[in-house]
Amino acid sequence: MKTTYLDYAATSPLLPEAKEAMIRVLDGMENGQIGNASSLHYAGQNAKNIIEDARKNVAQLIGADPAEIIFTSGGTESNNTVANIFRGQKIAISSIEHPSMLESAKAYAGKLAILPVDEQGIVQWQQIPEDADLVSIMLANNELGTIEPITEVKKRCKNYNTFVHSDATQALGKIHINVKELGIDYLTISAHKIGGPVGIGALYVRKGSAFKPLLLGGHQEDRRRAGTSNALLAAGFGAAAKWCWNNWSCKKYLQIAKLRDELCKRVLNEVPYSSLNGFEKAENGNTLPNILNMSFQAAEGESIQLYLDADDVIVSTGSACAAGDIQPSHVLMAISGDAEVAHSSIRFSLGLDTTAEDIDHVMAVLPKVIKRLQEISTIKIKEPK
Ligand code: PMP
User: Fold this and answer.
1) Does ligand 1 have an atom closer than 6 angstroms to the CB of 249?
2) SS3 letters for 55-95?
């Protein structure tokens, strides 16, 4: 049976366009045509041109000026960079940020305010402290898909001259993003969630917003990020961004939202003691079109994942970053406060290649897997109220 890959939010398959762009760079590196982008000679300038071309494509996808894009090693570094700018100052974040934001804010903030979320994962932006120097709220949550009200966050922060950052790692390519319309200061993105390579991301820094490099010791990226520029990965990222732009990926995801909503409905109807974490309908636009998080009473997330894997269905438990971690997901704890719900959850994340047959495949195996696990579990099932 064909494998049904529903773990696009962990990483998405490399787009052929990104692969080809990188092969061209590798060929050039092999034959000495592509060198160090900081060098003035021909091979250096070839590398520089590749990087600047990629910067334009990435900038275009989020409505930024190319000069406002700093290439980093990924979403993690972009988030750490923003927290580091506000070292010793007051930072406010939501309780469901990605660990790379949560942990860096905890490490660097002089004072930290953690804002609660409601049961769908929407941040209580009304509680943003007036004296925060930075507010960081993700555009969409990686475990639930919930889209945060960044426009409201920005409106409130405008009154207090607070800088605003948003982690758009999961939202990129799935929903329309324009940094000028959002009016925010910083935006985190990553290549491997849109079919680019792992190991490269970017940080958008609005012209004039506070900045301090995280990595020191080099003039690269206009003195904003030290380290030899990576033409290979930039070419892959640029090609993936260009593909998303040219192919209206956000529009294509409207079809994927229908599959996601159909899967949600079928799981709730066909799998006993299942429940939803987050919003039911992506078609309404308050959650990403491709992420669906569900819990199954008396069935442990990791076991579900392994059983499904044996049946050629690939999913993740909450967040791949938390895999192997015995702590319940902080996101599910924040919305439900229930460790059992958190431990019994799995995340389905769809991509543009997902089909109705994939949903049928899941529904052919999932009910049996859950039934088997519930039968051998010592946890007592609670009848829904
Ligand atoms: N932020 C979010 C919301 C993410 O989902 C991820 C990846 N799981 C990251 C940041 C980290 O991105 P990267 O893997 O590029 O470091």
Assistant:
1) no
2) HHHHHHHHCCCHHHEEEECCHHHHHHHHHHHCCCCEEEEEC
At 173, is the secondary structure helix, strand, or coil? coil
Q: Does ligand 1 have an atom closer than 6 angstroms to the CB of 104? A: no
**pLDDT range class, residue 384, cuts 50, 70, 90:** confident
Sheet with 69-72: list strands edge to edge.
69-72, 201-205, 186-190, 163-167, 134-136, 90-94, 111-115
DSSP sequence for 334-374: HHH--HHHHHTEEEEE--TT--HHHHHHHHHHHHHHHHHHH
pLDDT at 320: 47
> How many Å apart are CA 64 and CA 72, to the nearest integer?
16
Output the six-digit token pair for 171: 């939202």
Per the CB < 8 A criterion, the answer to whether 12 and 142 are in contact is: no
- Per the CB < 8 A criterion, the answer to whether 136 and 105 are in contact is yes
**pLDDT, tens digit, 9 for 90 and up, residues 67-111:** 999 999 999 999 999 999 999 999 999 999 999 999 999 999 999
Distance 85 CA to ligand 1 centre (A): 19
141, 170, 186, 331, best to mutate for ligand 1 pocket (most atoms within 8 Å of CB):
170
Instruction: List, as own/partner pairs, every contact residues 122-128 make where C-beta atoms lie below 8 angstroms and the sequence separation is at least 24, other chains included.
Output: 122/146, 122/148, 122/149, 123/94, 123/96, 123/148, 123/149, 123/153, 125/149, 125/152, 125/153, 125/156, 126/156, 128/92, 128/153, 128/156, 128/157, 128/162
Q: How high is the pLDDT of residue 1?
A: 72
Q: Is 321 a catalytic residue?
A: yes
Whether residue 344 has its Cβ less than 6 Å from ligand 1? no
Only one residue has tokens 């800088």, namely: 163
Q: How far apart are CA 301 and CA 344, in angstroms?
A: 4
Q: How far apart (Å, rounded) are the C-alpha atoms in residues 352 and 349?
A: 10
Quick one: which H or E segment has residue 16? helix 16-30
pTM of this structure: 0.97
